[in-house]
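User: Predict the structure for this protein chain, please.
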Amino acid sequence: MSNADRISTTAKTDDAEITLGILNAVHDNECITQRSVAQDLGIALGLANAYLKRCAKKGLIKVSQAPANRYAYYLTPQGFAEKSRLTAEYLSDSFQFFRRARGQCTEALRLAGQRGWNRVALYGASELAEIACLCDAPDVEVVILIDPTDNHDSFAHLPMVGSIEAAGEIDALLLTTLSDPQATYDALIKSFPAACVLVPNLLQVREARDQHEDAKS
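Assistant: Here is the predicted structure, written as structure tokens:
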């Protein structure tokens, strides 16, 4: 998949998630405000306003004047149908992501075992890291999670630290960040052997050319 395709796919996913968030918010509370929607969905106020207007234009929600210069929002029958469709789509995509992620993380850990890497650290707190915690492989133990951007002491059942240096004795890393994985990988291999960094294919990371050559030697 090209970068343009990935950007297009990501944009479509974000659009669907925001639309579903809008419809869920209206369904839960007809007296929502643009500001409350923006806060709940973690988006800019202007973007929340744009999506509310778009949903109204598509006939998914109805807007009526309420007292004190406020507005009330209602789901239309078409809005209910779209909410159901997007929910089913979201759950399907989530399940497919879970299956792919678990399969690829399990494969990576088994590869670590074949190479004699018994102590593996996850790099990046995310949904992918949560899934990786559920995976296992013979003679391999996921011992810790590393994330320089998170100051928590633990993640799932793992201890959590902010740097590779603080992780103690580890043989390999499994990249699990979902936030710009390519940039994270590129920075990571400057201080850790690229051959010992395992990357699930779903992250679409272009790995160092010498990684596979190092692993064979």
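Confidence is low (pLDDT under 50) at residues 1-10, 210-217.
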